[in-house]
Amino acid sequence: MFPDGLDPAEYEKIYQSTYKPLISTLYNLPDLPFTLYLAGPFKDWLEHKLPEFFKILEEMVSRKQLDILGGGFFSPLFPFLPPADRVGQIELLTTEIRKHLGKRPRGAWLPSSAWEPAMVSSLNTCGIEYILLDRIMLETSGFPGVDGRAPVTLEDCGKTITALPLDNRFRYLERFSPEALLDEVAAARGVVVIFADQSSIIPLFTPGDDGKTWFHSFIELLASRPEGTAELSTTGRCLKSRSLYRRAYISAGMSPFEFDDLHTSDDVSILARTPVKQYLVRSVNVMNLYAKMMYVHTLVNQLRGDKSRKKNAREELWKAQAGEIFRLPGGEDTAKSKTLRLQAYKNLLMAEKTARVRGVFSPSINTFDFDMDGLKDFLCQLDPLNIYVHHVGGKIFELDVLNAYRNYCDIRIKSPGLFMDHFVDASDIESLRSGVIPETQSVFADTIYQDVSVDSARHEIQLKTSGYFGTFQQPLSLRKQYSFRNEGIQVQYILKNDSPLNLSGNFLIELDLAVARTRHHEPLMTVYANETRADSRITEGHFEDVSWLQLSDLDSGVRFTLDANENPSISIFPVRCAETGALDESASPEGTRLFLSWKVDLGPGYEMEKMVFLKIEA
């Protein structure tokens, strides 16, 4: 799989180490039939750097040694995609294969065997005749006679497609000797489809001490066995002699072999029926990216008239649908996952910007269940910014700076956001001063804010919530008004003591900004506190009486300046995560958590007002 945006040097490395020895060996083994899937971005790289590669493939196809599979151009997990995007991605790759090889693919590759029955219609529309599904998904379907050793016919809404059983036991084929594989295939007494993992290509096609590759040894062994032991075939050729296949219904699921690193059931029949969308509930960042992808899909498909603009916007959207973007290896939000999301947001925001037709688009606030959790969110769209506000916590959960094509709320922490409100006691403030983020339950951050008013013309939202604080469970309420401008965000807070007793504590506002270090630049921080200016890299610290604070993302050229009507204390915590997503103080910062606090002493029925300004320059 090759997500869009991979460094060209990586493509070169993969070609030299994997595909060059693969095709060289296959070309010299004309008796070894093979089926190949090439992802669209890698195909594009080959087209520009090594166009002769396709001449070799074309010759192997013409001598019926090689089949090329179609599928999604950007290797998507198809159940994540709306039908129009499924069809679009399949047709795009089909067109490219026909252009280079002069032949339309009959079969399609489904990454992870990710499946849902509604895909049948999309595949059928694209002229796809067969797919490969994990053998266990067929074997555990519960249909009489369907044992995962023969193709089956799948149907949905009157459309049909053939599914070949893919035996993922052999995905790392180098772990089996040629003798062991041949014995397994002979014992299976049926169709055995083997697709080697990309990482297996090097050991399988690199000559050993005897000058032979693994496959050379396998061909020699097969020739020495009695005729009829096994017959080698491409996937397409094995369906040439069409016979009547059993019908089956395969419910939504994916290959059980994709769960190697996940703590799930050991029952393969359960794993085979676990939909691929389980990835979405494992990370709020992945879910938000999926929601953004679905939202941009709607915007792009509403474009009318300008076919070129729509085509460009769709291709940027499709780039953000690569399956690897939504996978979390071992359930961990890794640094690679973060990098892929960064590129995906860039593609999505480019698509969204392309879909904004001059003279038609106008800044607005819309209410819409963006993240599909049952609660409507507030989507403020300005010319330079997108600002999305959630009812839970009344926080901003997506901040898109369109000139930088970045979402500055995507940080690898549990629940990132901007303007998350807390009311805490003095011990929590002491923890912040000593460099520890308190884990105590917040008064406001987890409550559902009620909307009081939405002024789309003025780009303002007013929210309210309430809670209870301290040992005596004193009632208090909070009104919060967002005002969105091209220059940034203004938030007005009015905190009221609704109890009959004096209220003492600390009002705390949290902002999590994905201002990160890149390979080229380290973000900078400027703090003006106690009439003194301090410039440095972003480091942990606590400052009293802060007039303003500025974070500069040198990579994108975006600057965030934070100030308030009354000087707060500010605690600063760089977010440093290891490869797996666990906190690691030695890692480079990939975001910054800011905590603004004020001491509060309110008599019964009294109110306190605070105003916070976040200026955004891009």
Describe the model.
This protein is α+β, with helices and mostly antiparallel strands and 618 residues long. Helix content is 27%, strand content 28%. Helix 11 (284-301) packs parallel to helix 14. The protein starts with 7 loop residues before the first helix and ends with a strand. The model has no long low-confidence stretch (mean pLDDT 91).
- Give the low-confidence spans: none
Strand content: 25-35%
Structural category is: alpha+beta
Distance between the termini: 34 Å
- Any idea what the radius of gyration is? 29 Å
- Strand line-up across the major sheet: 14-15-16-17-26-23-22-19-20
- Mind summarizing the main beta sheet? 9 strands, antiparallel
Q: Please give the share of residues in helix.
A: 25-40%
If you average the pLDDT, what whole number results? Answer: 91
General form: elongated
Total beta strands: 26
Number of separate helices: 15
Characteristics of this structure?
9-stranded antiparallel beta sheet, 7-stranded mixed beta sheet, alpha+beta, single chain, 26 strands, elongated, 15 helices, 28% strand, 618 residues
Summarize the model shown.
With 618 residues, the chain is α+β, with helices and mostly antiparallel strands. It has 15 helices and 26 strands. A 9-stranded antiparallel β-sheet has the order 14-15-16-17-26-23-22-19-20, with no helix packed on it.
How are the elements arranged and paired?
Layout: H1 8-27, E1 34-37, H2 40-49, H3 52-62, E2 66-71, H4 83-101, E3 107-109, H5 119-125, E4 130-134, H6 135-139, E5 152-156, E6 159-166, H7 178-188, H8 201-205, H9 214-224, E7 246-248, H10 268-271, H11 284-301, H12 307-319, H13 323-326, H14 335-355, E8 364-368, E9 377-381, E10 385-389, E11 396-401, E12 406-407, E13 418-424, H15 426-433, E14 450-455, E15 460-469, E16 474-485, E17 488-497, E18 503-513, E19 524-529, E20 532-537, E21 541-543, E22 546-553, E23 558-564, E24 569-576, E25 589-602, E26 607-617
Parallel strand pairs: 1-2, 2-3, 3-4, 4-6, 5-7
Antiparallel strand pairs: 5-6, 8-9, 9-10, 10-11, 11-12, 13-18, 14-15, 15-16, 16-17, 17-26, 18-25, 19-20, 19-22, 21-24, 22-23, 23-26, 24-25
Helix pairs in contact: 4-5, 11-12, 11-14, 12-14
